[in-house]
Amino acid sequence: MTNLLEVLNQLQTKIKKLENDKITEIKKIEQSYEIEINKYRQALEVNMELNEACLHCEGTGKVYCDDGYQSNSRESCKKCNGSGKKK
Question: What is the mean pLDDT of residues 42-57?
Answer without folding.
Answer: 96
